[in-house]
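Action item from last week, closing it out:
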Amino acid sequence: MCSSDLTLQREGRPVLALAFSPDGTTLAAGNGAGELLRWQLPSGTALPPAGSGAAVTCITYRPDGGAIALGSIDGSIRLRSAATGEPLADLPAAGAPVEVRSVRFSPDSTLLAGALADGTMRVWSGVQQAAKKPRASAAIGRSEEHTSELQSP
C-alpha cells in the first residue's frame, strides 16, 4: 500500500506539469502563471520561483540535470537553469500559437523535441550549446516541423 510521505504546496496558480530531476533530488513544476517552481527532496524545501509568462503545460529535465525545458500554452518553449531558474534560451512559437503538449531532450542533449496540440512536432538542434550560455537568442540551431501521423503496429 502506498502512502504520501510529503505534501508540497505553493500559493498562487495551480501546478499543471511536473518532473523529477535525473538524480531524484529536486522536483520541478510549472504552473498557470508560467512560473518554474522547485523543491529539494526529500526535505520538501521550496526553492525560489523563477520566471513568469504563459501557463506551463509540460516540463522536462535535460538528461544531465543542468537545464529544464518548459512548454507553454502559447506555443513557446523556455529553457531554464535547473540550479537557479535563470533563463538560458527562449524558443518562440512558429506561426500561430499552438499549445505545447510534451517536450523531451534526446539522450545526448543535442536535440529538443516539442509535440504541439495541432499534431505537429518541432525539433531543435544546438540546444546543448545554447543552454550553456547565459541567455541565448531565440534562434537556436534549426527547427524542423514534422506532421506525420503515428500508426499502430
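Closing note: Confidence is low (pLDDT under 50) at residues 132-153.
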